[in-house]
C-alpha cells in the first residue's frame, strides 16, 4: 500500500490536463507568434489558458496573467522586475519565512546594494501588520509576503498587510503558490499588485507558472527577446504545458467549493489522531492554515538518529511519502530556517515534518498514515 502525502511539493497531473496536452502536441503545435493558421490555432489555445488561469483568481483582465516556467520564475520576475526600475538601490521588505525563491533573490539584491528588511513572525509564523507599518521607509518600493507558508502551513493576513502597503503607495507582492486552487482568491478586491502561482501545485503539469500583474504596474523583464507575454517574458511559450495549466486551473475553480472542506475535514481528522504522540509538536497556525496541510516538529530531535529526514526515510519504507523541513548541506543536517524564525530551538528545528493531503487522499489513507507514524516514532524513541 502506497500513500502520497506530499501534495505541497507537487501534485499528480490530472488526466484532463494530460489529455489536452496530448491533443495540443499532436494537432495544435504551431508557434503562437506566427500569423498563419498553425500559429493562430496555438495562439487560441494560449489565450484560452490565460482566461482559465485568470478565472482562478478572478482577474478581470486576462492579459494581467504573465506565463512563466513556474512559481520561482514568477517570484523572480516580481522582485527583480521592480528592482530593475531603479538605477539606485532602494529598500524592500520581506518576511522571515519566505520561500527561497524570494529570500535568495532578496539576498542577491543586498549584494547589489539594496537594503532588505526581514519582518519577524510570531510563534505561529504570522507577520504582525504593525511591524510592517513600522518597517516602511521613504525609499521602500516593494513588500513581498508569502501568502501560505509551504513548510508550516500558516496563512498570512494578506488583505490587512496589502492595505498597509496600498495606504503608503508601496507595491505589494505575494507568493500564493500554496494557496491558489485551495482557498478562494479574488485579486479584484485583494490589495495585491503582484501574485505568483504555479501549475504543478494544482494538478497541472510541471514547467508552467504565472505572475499576476495588476494593470498599471510596471516591470522590467528578466531577459530580452521577442517580446512575448506583453514584453515581460520573452521566448516562445510552452503551449502544451500552458494548456494543461489552464485546464487544471478551470477545474480547480469548479471543484474548490467541495474539495476545500473535504481536505479540512481530513486534515483535522489526522491532527486528532496524532495529538497524543509524546514529543510531536504541531507547528504553524491552527486557525489560519492551509486546508490540506499538517506540520510538526520533534521535541527530541538530535540529528541523524531522530530528525525530520529520518522520519521521512522510515515512512518511505512503509510506503508513505511525506517531507521534512531541515535541509542537508555538504553531508551536514541544517535546522529549518522557517522553524528557527518562529522561535524554535535548533534541536527542534532539525525535526520538522510536513504531511500534505490532496484529491486522491482518503480517510483510510489518513488513518493508516497515523498508525504508521506512531509506530515509527515508537521504534525510534526506544
UniProtKB/TrEMBL annotation:
Residues 3-367 form the Aminotransferase class V domain. InterPro entries: Aminotrans_V_dom (IPR000192), Aminotrans_V_PyrdxlP_BS (IPR020578), Cysteine_dSase (IPR016454), PyrdxlP-dep_Trfase (IPR015424), PyrdxlP-dep_Trfase_major (IPR015421), PyrdxlP-dep_Trfase_small (IPR015422). PROSITE patterns: AA_TRANSFER_CLASS_5. Signal peptide: none annotated. GO terms for molecular function: cysteine desulfurase activity; iron-sulfur cluster binding; metal ion binding; transaminase activity. Transmembrane segments: none annotated. Its cofactor is pyridoxal 5'-phosphate. Its EC number is 2.8.1.7. It catalyses: (sulfur carrier)-H + L-cysteine = (sulfur carrier)-SH + L-alanine. Keywords: Aminotransferase, Iron, Iron-sulfur, Metal-binding, Pyridoxal phosphate, Transferase. The keyword Kinase does not apply. It is an enzyme of class 2 (transferase). The keyword Plastid does not apply. Pfam families: Aminotran_5. Belongs to the class-V pyridoxal-phosphate-dependent aminotransferase family. NifS/IscS subfamily. Homodimer. This is cysteine desulfurase. It comes from Tolypothrix tenuis PCC 7101.
Amino acid at each position: 500500500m502506497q500513500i502520497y502525502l506530499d501534495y505541497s511539493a507537487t501534485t499528480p497531473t490530472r488526466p484532463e490536463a494530460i489529455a489536452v496536452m496530448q491533443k495540443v502536441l499532436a494537432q495544435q503545435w504551431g508557434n503562437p507568434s506566427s500569423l498563419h493558421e498553425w500559429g493562430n490555432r496555438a495562439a487560441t489555445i494560449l489565450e484560452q489558458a490565460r482566461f482559465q488561469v485568470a478565472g482562478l483568481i478572478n482577474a478581470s483582465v486576462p492579459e494581467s496573467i504573465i506565463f512563466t516556467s513556474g512559481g520561482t520564475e514568477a517570484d523572480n520576475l516580481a522582485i527583480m522586475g521592480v528592482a530593475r526600475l531603479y538605477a539606485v538601490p532602494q529598500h524592500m521588505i520581506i518576511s522571515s519565512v519566505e520561500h527561497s525563491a524570494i529570500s535568495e533573490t532578496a539576498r542577491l539584491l543586498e549584494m547589489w546594494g539594496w537594503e532588505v528588511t526581514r519582518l519577524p513572525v510570531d510563534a505561529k509564523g504570522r507577520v504582525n501588520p504593525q511591524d510592517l507599518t513600522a518597517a516602511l521607509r521613504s525609499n521602500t518600493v516593494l513588500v513581498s509576503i508569502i501568502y501560505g507558508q509551504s513548510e508550516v502551513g500558516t496563512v498570512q493576513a494578506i488583505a490587512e498587510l496589502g492595505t498597509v502597503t496600498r495606504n503608503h503607495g508601496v507595491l505589494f507582492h505575494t507568493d500564493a503558490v500554496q494557496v491558489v486552487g485551495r482557498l478562494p482568491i479574488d485579486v479584484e478586491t485583494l490589495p495585491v499588485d503582484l501574485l505568483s502561482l504555479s501549475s504543478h501545485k494544482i494538478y497541472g503539469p510541471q514547467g508552467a507558472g504565472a505572475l499576476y500583474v495588476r494593470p498599471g504596474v510596471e516591470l522590467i523583464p528578466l531577459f530580452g527577446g521577442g517580446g512575448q507575454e506583453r514584453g515581460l517574458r520573452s521566448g516562445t511559450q510552452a503551449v502544451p504545458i500552458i494548456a494543461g495549466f489552464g485546464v487544471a486551473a478551470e477545474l480547480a475553480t469548479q471543484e474548490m467549493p467541495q474539495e476545500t472542506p473535504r481536505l479540512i475535514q481530513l486534515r483535522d481528522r489526522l491532527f486528532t489522531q496524532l495529538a497524543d504522540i509524546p514529543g510531536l509538536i504541531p507547528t504553524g497556525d491552527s486557525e489560519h492554515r492551509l486546508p490540506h496541510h499538517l506540520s510538526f516538529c520533534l521535541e527530541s530531535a538530535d540529528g541523524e538518529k531522530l530528525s525530520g529526514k529520518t522520519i521521512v526515510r522510515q515512512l518511505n519504507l512503509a510506503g508513505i511519502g511525506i517531507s521534512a523541513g531541515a535541509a542537508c548541506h555538504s553531508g551536514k543536517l541544517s535546522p529549518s530556517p522557517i522553524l528557527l524564525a518562529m522561535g524554535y530551538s535548533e534541536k527542534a528545528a532539525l525535526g520538522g515534518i510536513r504531511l500534505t493531503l490532496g484529491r486522491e487522499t482518503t480517510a483510510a489513507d489518513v488513518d493508516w498514515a497515523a498508525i504508521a507514524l506512531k509506530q515509527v516514532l515508537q521504534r525510534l524513541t526506544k
